[in-house]
Write a structure and sequence with these properties.
Layout: H1 7-14, E1 21-22, H2 27-35, E2 40-41, H3 45-73, H4 78-87
Parallel strand pairs: 1-2
Helix pairs in contact: 3-4
Length: 89
């Protein structure tokens, strides 16, 4: 019998039709969720804002690369660019 690291990992492997989405975009949270079978992460602006305040150093390079695109096209407010940036990890 196979051993699983967590019940979520077991569910993700045994029932692949069920997609596990992580309700955080924190780097450590995402890495843990991906190891347990997560297929994505939510990008709620409040959650993203809280993570940005705590983990800006981890995201700064990616945000700096994305912001010029947002400003050039001016189709989305900057906060949506941050949410999109986090969502497309």
């Amino acid at each position: 019998m196979k051993t699983y690291e967590s019940p979520l990992q077991e569910a993700a492997e045994r029932f692949p039709q069920t997609l596990l989405w992580n309700d955080s975009c924190g780097v450590a949270d995402l890495n843990l969720a991906l190891r347990h079978g997560a297929t994505g992460a939510t990008s709620n602006p409040v959650i993203v804002g809280n993570v940005m305040r705590k983990e800006m150093a981890d995201w700064k390079g990616r945000l700096n690369a994305l912001m010029p695109v947002c400003y050039k096209h001016r189709t989305l407010p900057p906060i949506y660019c941050v949410v999109v940036c986090v969502a497309v990890i």
